[in-house]
Every structure is written in structure tokens, then in C-alpha cells.
Design goal:
Elements (H helix, E strand, L loop, with lengths): L4 E7 L7 E6 L3 E5 L6 H20 L2 H4 L10 E5 L4 E4 L12 H4 L2 H12 L27 E4 L7 E4 L22 H5 L3 H7 L3 H12 L16 H12 L6 E5 L7 H16 L3 E5 L3 H5 L3 E6 L8 E6 L1 H6 L5 H9 L4
Parallel strand pairs: 3-9, 3-10, 5-8, 8-9
Antiparallel strand pairs: 1-2, 1-4, 6-7, 10-11
The chain binds adenosine-5'-triphosphate (ATP), magnesium ion and zinc ion.
């Protein structure tokens, strides 16, 4: 039997007032409410914490100790929770060498391509590796940067003069694929790369980045140079392969221009089409209007919040505003008064 809702009974975390509610699965569900009303208490500290507890029960202590830690949620029972992917506003994890290519599967596939079809031929083996110590620039160890220590002043970072910032060892640059070496490939934008490579899997990866509006990004661009909105979309691209996940986002629209908000909405719809449940905490009215289901927590902050003010479709909320401040702003946004 298909379980169509996640059922929460007696949630009392932080300011939540013993609330019970059902969250529809396989839809875009937006949690709304004023700052301090209890959205994070419900979504992260109750649902997220319970999901984490369930994962913990099935993992050994080694894995358990390395998972994100939530406390024990103050809730009676949660039904039909499958394992969520929790994404928040934290930056993507990765080291200074992380690029678009390394956090996706693009890099691994390029390596394979170079070992199979690169020139000169290196043989059908795994010896060809850009991030193996032999493939890394010996001077900067792959970071592309050199730290210069100055007396009495803060250290400064300079582009490495051995690899010119690419992070690759000079020997690796003699290998070419279709006339280009790895640094030349890493300088290509996503839009250029999609024409250069004819391998289906790589094309799919580049297409995904294109659909996220990241066509102008160089595939070797380092993650620490990404803007907040770019990073958020890249994070989502890593989730988009999954199905039947619960994807939780805390204000994904923050920092996005209206035209990027449209792309974000398209992406959320893609995630749902692929069988996921998307739970979003949002203050952005455009995203609220695109929700399949709205859950309003409030009506105010702290002790004056923590209640379930509304749960239903956007249309219903507009027609029956009740005590919901969100309804007031949605009506105003839609020009209904
Ligand atoms: N650990 C805690 N101890 C005591 N009170 C807490 C704790 N965490 C949150 N609260 C309180 O619970 C209430 C709800 O907080 P919560 O973080 O859920 O709000 P929110 O709706 O997510 O707000 P925002 O939109 O600003 O993120 C707030 O009044 C907050 O101060
Ligand atoms: Mg919050
Ligand atoms: Zn170097």
C-alpha cells in the first residue's frame, strides 16, 4: 500500500503547542509563518531529528558518530517517514581543491575518458589519475595556490607559478583528448563542454547544469568562488538523481534574483516529478504561490506561535484566511484587495 502522507502526532519541540498534522508526499510542500513561529522546530528539529534517529538504528556506531547530530525530538509519533535528504543553507562540503567537476561525476568520467582515449595512450587501467599524487602539482599539492608568509603581515595567497593555478603536475598536461589537455578542458564553460563531448553520460551531466542556469560556469571553477545562489543550485543538482527522498530546504530562494527563482521552482517540480517529496521553508511569496500544499505555523512568534494555523492548498488559504498572516500577504501579492 502506498503511504501518501507523513503523519505527525503531538509535536512539542521548542514553542510547538502539541500539534498534529499530515504532510502530503510527492508534492511541493511549503512551510510558512513569521520568524520565530516554529517552522525550523517542526521541520528540522522534529522531522529531521526523527529521520536521523531512524537512520541511527540501522547504522553501526562508526557511521552513527559521523552523521549530523540532532537531539531527540519532543513528539509522540511520526508515521511514514522515509529517509530524508536534509539540505540547509550550509555551504557544500569539499576541500580547497573541489570544483564543479569533482563534486559531480564529471571528473571521474573525464579521468576514464583520458585513460581510454587520451593521447598518448596510457593503457586500460586506473593509473591515469589527475588527483593521484603523481597527477598533482608538486609545488602547491593541487590547490593551485601558494601561501607566502610575510613578516608582521597576514599571509597572502598567490597563484602557484609551477602549475599557473591549475593544480596539475606538468607531466599530466602532455595527455590530450580531442586536442585538449585537462587544464584546457577545465576552463571550458558548461555550455562549451556540452558541444565538445559526445558521450551520453557526460552530456546528461552538462545538461543538468544547463537546466539549473549554470551554463556560464567553467567546469573547473572552484566551489569556494561560487555565489550563494549558485552553490544552492549545484547542491540541488546532486539530489536530482534520487527518487522517493524527502528533500528539506531552508529558504532556498534566499539571495536569488526573480529570474533565478523561476529556475528554482522548475527544479523543485523536477524533483517531485522524479518521485521525491520536497519540503521547503519559505518567506518568498512567489514560491508560496507555486506550492501544492501550504502549512502555516503561527500565528505569531515564540509563545504566541507554535500552532498549526493552516494546512491545505494555496487557493483554500486565500479563500479562508482565518488567523493566517501569510494569507494576508498572499492576497496582497496576488492583487486580491
Ligand atoms: N533550543 C531552543 N531553546 C529554547 N527556545 C528555542 C530553541 N530553539 C528555538 N527556540 C524558540 O522557538 C521558537 C521557534 O523557533 P524556530 O527556529 O522554529 O522559528 P522559525 O519559524 O524557524 O523562524 P525563522 O523564520 O526565523 O527561521 C522561537 O521563539 C525560538 O526562540
Ligand atoms: Mg527557521
Ligand atoms: Zn601548483
Amino acid at each position: 500500500m502506498v503511504q501518501k502522507t507523513i503523519n505527525i502526532y503531538g509535536a512539542r519541540q521548542n514553542n510547538l503547542k502539541n500539534i498534529s498534522l499530515k504532510i502530503p508526499k510527492h508534492q511541493i510542500v511549503v512551510f510558512t509563518g513569521v520568524s520565530g513561529s516554529g517552522k525550523s522546530s517542526l521541520v528540522f528539529e522534529t522531522i529531521g531529528a526523527e529521520a536521523q534517529r531512524q537512520i541511527n538504528e540501522t547504522q553501526d556506531s562508526f557511521v552513527r558518530n559521523r552523521l549530523q547530530h540532532f537531539g531527540i525530538a519532543d513528539v509522540d509519533k511520526i508515521e511514514n517517514l522515509n529517509v530524508p535528504v536534509i539540505i540547509n543553507q550550509k555551504p557544500l562540503t569539499g576541500n580547497i581543491r573541489s570544483t564543479v567537476a569533482t563534486i559531480t561525476d564529471i571528473y571521474a568520467n573525464l579521468r576514464l575518458l583520458f585513460s581510454r582515449m587520451g593521447e598518448p595512450f596510457v593503457g586500460y587501467s586506473h593509473v591515469f589519475s589527475f588527483n593521484h599524487p603523481g597527477g598533482m602539482c608538486p609545488q602547491c599539492e593541487g590547490s593551485g595556490l601558494e601561501k607566502i608568509e610575510l613578516a608582521f603581515l597576514e599571509d597572502v595567497e598567490m597563484i602557484c607559478d609551477v602549475c599557473h593555478g591549475s593544480g596539475y603536475a606538468p607531466e599530466i598536461l602532455k595527455y590530450h583528448y580531442k586536442g585538449k589537455n585537462i587544464t584546457e578542458i577545465m576552463k571550458m564553460t558548461v555550455a562549451e563542454a556540452i558541444h565538445f563531448f559526445d558521450h551520453e553520460y557526460l552530456q546528461q551531466q552538462f545538461q543538468l547544469l544547463m537546466s539549473l542556469g549554470l551554463d556560464y560556469i567553467a567546469i573547473g571553477q572552484r566551489l569556494n568562488t561560487f555565489s550563494g545562489g549558485e552553490r544552492q543550485r549545484l547542491k540541488l543538482s546532486k539530489e536530482i538523481d534520487g527518487t522517493n527522498h524527502i528533500i528539506v530546504l531552508d529558504e532556498p530562494s534566499s539571495g536569488l534574483h526573480p529570474s533565478d527563482t523561476e529556475k528554482l521552482i522548475a527544479l523543485l517540480n523536477d524533483l517531485v516529478d522524479q518521485g521525491n517529496t520536497v519540503i521547503v521553508i519559505e518567506h518568498n511569496l512567489e514560491i508560496m504561490t507555486q506550492a501544492d500544499w501550504i502549512i502555516d505555523i503561527g500565528p505569531l512568534a515564540g509563545d504566541k506561535g507554535g500552532e498549526l494555523v493552516f494546512s491545505g492548498t494555496v487557493d483554500d488559504l486565500i479563500k479562508n484566511p482565518g488567523r493566517s498572516f501569510t494569507a494576508f500577504y498572499l492576497r496582497k501579492y496576488l492583487g486580491l484587495f
